[in-house]
Every structure is written in structure tokens, then in C-alpha cells.
Write a structure and sequence with these properties.
Blueprint lengths: L1 E5 L4 H13 L4 E6 L13 H4 L4 E5 L5 H11 L3 E4 L6 H6 L2 H20 L4 E7 L23 H20 L3 E6 L2 E2 L8 H9 L5 E4 L5 E3 L1 E2 H14 L5 E4 L4 E3 H12 L6 E4 L14 H7 L7 H14 L1 H7 L2 H11 L4
Helix pairs in contact: 1-8, 5-6, 7-9
Bound molecules: nicotinamide-adenine-dinucleotide and thymidine-5'-diphosphate.
């Protein structure tokens, strides 16, 4: 099975590439990544040598028709798993344009080319954020109406709708997966868990938006990747599957857990101006994926968080390497007037 995995140098894509190469001996992977600020070749160190002849890398923009045609001509894929995207909500609030380019136009370009080449499967990796925000009760199901609130989630919802259209109009075998908040090794330190860890170890203030009572349903990246792999191997075309981790926590609970793990005081928490349009609560009903794909999360949040923070401690150099000048510019611009 020859699979193009886009965004494979990012957090989830790099974890997915290791998983599929480990678990599916017939899989040959071409990682197509533009290497934006969030993409790092270091995330796949050792993979080329460890899986000789089964792993290739191509630097390309998924929105570039000619570039992707050239990759397809060389690699001759049978399937695409599309992880490539701009992914940080706060950056989408600063400037939505890159999100429209990569998440909407990029996905449409891949759908178009997948259709022209008659590919066997197209898996679009999407998010629970397309459903908007929940009140205190209930969970998102696959039939919950899309109601995105941030420019990021609006771009992901647009991509989901193009996926639906390509299935309905052209019969492309598309599957959309929607997952809750991931954590684990190789997550870029702009997202809650690695950001708070990297600040805590340096005894710097931890910026918690609003009252810290927003709830996310945390899932270990390995569980998400197992779900995406099941979708690639087993899902029927035209379906949408939710994945969640059954681990709803308030942001404050997560941040305090990180501080406790690092042996740092709660006084490092700073409540700062809220994120505009901040979704209050996410929670996923993944019973469809459980029934049809045999999906179930395996990593409990407390164990997974401990392992993840231990990984960051053992890989302190990784954080230093990925936080470039551009990262520092965004952080001081975004948090400058908050902290
Ligand atoms: P990430 O930001 O860590 O990585 C994104 C990767 O995509 C990077 O390697 C980047 O270089 C690449 N990329 C961006 N634009 C590109 C383009 N135009 N062409 C080629 N490559 C490009 O993101 P992540 O957290 O690993 O998320 C991966 C996917 O999973 C995204 O589609 C995201 O929407 C989805 N998702 C993420 C979460 C989460 O909690 N992180 C949850 C649900 C769904
Ligand atoms: P984030 O990791 O950006 O993921 P998402 O917005 O996709 O859910 O944020 C997770 C939660 O943490 C979200 O409710 C916003 C909150 N948060 C903070 O309180 N402070 C921060 O500095 C960041 C980055 C996030």
C-alpha cells in the first residue's frame, strides 16, 4: 500500500508515520511537507534508516498543483492521508490567510488530484472544533451541525465540506476523521501542554486564558493515530468518524497537573485576557468508531501526561531547536500585552 502522508513533519503526522511503518509491513510512505515553522525533519530522525525503501520525504506545498503532480508521478500513491494544515487557533486570529491557503485550497488541490488519479482512499484528518462549542452537558456526534467559531476551525470545516462534495459529486472514496485535543511527544510548544511545561521548567508565568474553566477532551496522540490508521484500512467511503480520549479536563486542572509534575508552585499561574471566540467545552461521542472500526482509546490521561512530560524533559534540546526566531516573534506579539 503506497500512501502519501501530508504534514508528516508535524506533531501528529510524525507519530502516524512511525505507527504505520511499524504496524503495516506492506505500507510504503511518502511524507509530503512544506516544512513551515511547525514542521521539523528532526521529528522523523532515524525513520529513513530504520525503514529502508519504505519511507521517502518530499518538500512540497499541498496547495501547489504542479508540485504535487510531480510527487505523484514519482511516488505513484494509492492513498492520501492529509494531516498538513495550519493548526494554531491563536495564529488564525492574528492572520487567517495561511489557514485558507493550506487548509482549504491545499485540501481542495489534493482532492482534485486524488480524483484525477483515481486513488483508492483519501483520509482527511479533521477536528472536533468544526462543531463549535458545547454547554455543560452532552457530546459532539458525527451528525452535530458544523458551527466553527475560530478562523482555524472555519478553515477545517470548509475542508470537511469539500471532502463531502468530492465524495458526493465525483465518487472519491473520502473518509473524514474528527478528533479532540491531542497531546504527546513532538507537539509544538505553542499548544497548551508543551507551552505550559516549557514555561514551568523555566519558572516563568503560565498564561491561562479567561477563568481557566474551558474544557478539552484530551487524547494521547498514539490513540488518535491508531484511529486514523483504522480509518485508512477499514472505513467505508463517505463516512465521518469522531475520535476522543474520554478525558475531559478544565485547562486549570491540566496546568496544575503540569506544575505538580515539575514540582513548581501554583503561583506561576497568570489568568490573562481571554482568547476571542474561545470555545467553552469540547467532548466527543466516538461510539460510531468504536462500533464500526473497533476504536477505543488506550492511554489514560494521567499516565499519558506523565509519559509526555518525561519525554519533554528527556528531549529538552528538541524544544530549543524548534523554537526559532519566528516562534519567538509570534510569542512576544501574542502574549506581550497579556502577561
Ligand atoms: P502541526 O502544526 O504540528 O503540523 C502541521 C504540519 O503540516 C507541519 O509539518 C507543517 O510543515 C505542515 N504543513 C502546513 N502547511 C502545509 C502545506 N501547505 N503543505 C505541506 N505541508 C504543510 O499540526 P498537528 O497538531 O500535527 O495537526 C495535524 C492535523 O491534525 C491537522 O490537520 C490538524 O487540523 C489535525 N488535528 C489536530 C489536533 C491537535 O490536537 N493537534 C486535533 C484534531 C485534529
Ligand atoms: P490549544 O492547545 O491552543 O488548543 P485548542 O485551542 O485547539 O483547543 O489550547 C487548549 C486550551 O488551552 C484552550 O482552551 C485555550 C487554552 N490556552 C490557554 O489558556 N493559554 C494558552 O497560552 C494557550 C496556548 C491555550
Amino acid at each position: 500500500m503506497r500512501v502519501i502522508v501530508t504534514g508528516g513533519c508535524g506533531f501528529i503526522g510524525s507519530n502516524f508515520i512511525r505507527l504505520i511503518l511499524d504496524e503495516v509491513p506492506r505500507a510504503v510512505v511518502c511524507n509530503v511537507d512544506l516544512l513551515t515553522y511547525a514542521g521539523n525533519l528532526e521529528n522523523l530522525a532515524g525513520v529513513e534508516e530504520g525503514f529502508k525503501g519504505r519511507y521517502f520525504f518530499e518538500r512540497a506545498d499541498i496547495a501547489d498543483r504542479k508540485g504535487i503532480i510531480a510527487v505523484m508521478d514519482r511516488f505513484k500513491p494509492e492513498a492520501i492521508v492529509n494531516f498538513a494544515a495550519e493548526t494554531h487557533v491563536d495564529r488564525s486570529i492574528e492572520d487567517a490567510s495561511p489557514f485558507i491557503h493550506s487548509n482549504v485550497i491545499g485540501t481542495q488541490n489534493l482532492l482534485q488530484l486524488a480524483g484525477e488519479r483515481g486513488l483508492d482512499k483519501f483520509v482527511q484528518v479533521s477536528t472536533d472544533e468544526v462543531y463549535g462549542s458545547l454547554g455543560p452537558e452532552g457530546c459532539f456526534t458525527e451528525t452535530t451541525p458544523l458551527a466553527p467559531n475560530s478562523p482555524y476551525s472555519a478553515s477545517k470545516a470548509s475542508a470537511d465540506l469539500f471532502c463531502r462534495a468530492w465524495h458526493e459529486t465525483y465518487g472519491l472514496p473520502v473518509v473524514v476523521t474528527r478528533c479532540s485535543n491531542n497531546y504527546g511527544p513532538f507537539q509544538f510548544p505553542e499548544k497548551l501542554i508543551p507551552l505550559m511545561y516549557s514555561l514551568a521548567v523555566k519558572d516563568q508565568p503560565l498564561p491561562v486564558y479567561g477563568d481557566g474553566q474551558n474544557i478539552r477532551d484530551w487524547i494521547h496522540v498514539r490513540d488518535h493515530c491508531r484511529g486514523v490508521l483504522l480509518a485508512l484500512l477499514k472505513a467505508a467511503p463517505g463516512t465521518v468518524y469522531n475520535f476522543g480520549g474520554q478525558a475531559e479536563r478544565t485547562n486549570l486542572e491540566v496546568v496544575r497537573g503540569i506544575l505538580a509534575h515539575c514540582g513548581k508552585p501554583d503561583s506561576l499561574v497568570r489568568f490573562v485576557k481571554d482568547r476571542p471566540g474561545h470555545d467553552r467545552r469540547y467532548a466527543m461521542d466516538f461510539s460510531l468508531a468504536a462500533k464500526e472500526l473497533g476504536y477505543a482509546p488506550e492511554v489514560t490521561f494521567e499516565k499519558g501526561l506523565e509519559q509526555t512530560l518525561d519525554w519533554y524533559a528527556a528531549n529538552a534540546g528538541w524544544i530549543e531547536n524548534v523554537t526559532s526566531g519566528a516562534y519567538k516573534d509570534f510569542m512576544s506579539k501574542w502574549y506581550g500585552d497579556r502577561l
